[in-house]
Specification:
This protein has one domain: Uracil-DNA Glycosylase, subunit E, CATH 3.40.470. The protein has nine helices and eight strands. The strands form two sheets. It has a four-stranded antiparallel β-sheet with strand order 1-2-5-6, with no helix packed on it. The protein has a four-stranded parallel β-sheet with strand order 4-3-7-8. Helix 3 runs antiparallel to helix 4. It is globular, with a radius of gyration of 18 Å. InterPro entries: Uracil-DNA_glycosylase-like_sf. It comes from Paenibacillus pabuli.
Length: 250
């Protein structure tokens, strides 16, 4: 368990805020995008706390890396963590439950599982089906984001482009302060960057010497249904990714 961006004092304050919420089937942006849950901001770019990426799985063999948690993930994470805390679960357990519930939520998860299965990731990690990685008792997978906490621009999901992470000091510093220490807690995992925006930042981190090459599977598309070029990119890179995984497996 590691809290890279928030202090123990902040953590306790955030726990108290979460416990103050009523238990309900869904929360609105008006409820969660509040100053009490805001970590920092720069102009129209705001970073909000979310409990799910507080949980880190150091035994993972595969690390899926997105850009930043979206609103849907954030809401599911809060809903799960609030219920857990009100049931007197520990903060760590609440974060773990939120992680399992929120990681790659919605249609993104089904798209992701389908593509990972097709390239043979299940054979690389030796499980019957990629779906197994997302089950609560499986310790082979760690999902995370370059920017650990949700970033919103004008209260809307940040898309990784406007502004560019690499050219925005606030966002790039967030990557250095959260992703790098988190990566350091895993033992040489297979890193799968989800989309070109994540790849671009990883290339910059490599060029600047922040990370070593290791096992990075280049060419995997972002699994969002809103990514119109997802299928085309996947089909274009599928054979190369399959070959790379086979070589690493053997």
């Amino acid at each position: 368990m590691s809290n890279l961006l928030i202090s123990p004092t902040q953590q306790q304050r955030l726990i108290d805020v979460m416990k103050s919420f009523p238990t309900q089937p869904k929360y609105s942006k008006a409820q969660l995008l509040i100053n009490d849950l805001k970590l920092s901001s720069s102009g129209e770019v705001e970073m909000f706390y979310s409990p799910h990426n507080e949980y880190i799985n150091p035994s993972a063999k595969v690390m899926l890396v997105g850009i930043t948690p979206g609103w849907q993930q954030m809401e599911i994470a809060y809903r799960t963590a609030i219920q857990a805390l009100k049931a007197h679960h520990s903060y760590e357990q609440a974060c773990k439950e939120a992680k399992i519930a929120a990681r790659m939520a919605g249609s993104m998860r089904s798209n992701l599982i389908q593509m990972l299965q097709e390239i043979g990731l299940h054979e690389y990690v030796r499980v019957p089906h990629v779906q197994r990685l997302f089950e609560a008792d499986c310790t082979l997978l760690h999902t995370t984001s370059l920017i650990r906490y949700p970033v919103l621009v004008n209260k809307q999901n940040y898309n990784g482009h406007q502004p560019s992470i690499s050219q925005n000091a606030f966002l790039y510093q967030a990557v250095l302060e959260s992703f790098l220490p988190e990566l350091g807690q895993l033992k040489q995992p297979l890193i799968i960057p989800l989309g070109k925006s994540v790849e671009a930042v990883l290339h910059q981190l490599l060029d600047e010497g922040w990370i070593a090459e290791g096992k990075i599977l280049w060419g995997f598309p972002h699994p969002s249904g809103a990514n119109g070029s997802r299928v085309k990119q996947f089909l274009h890179n599928e054979a190369g990714m399959q070959k790379t995984l086979r070589e690493w497996r053997d």
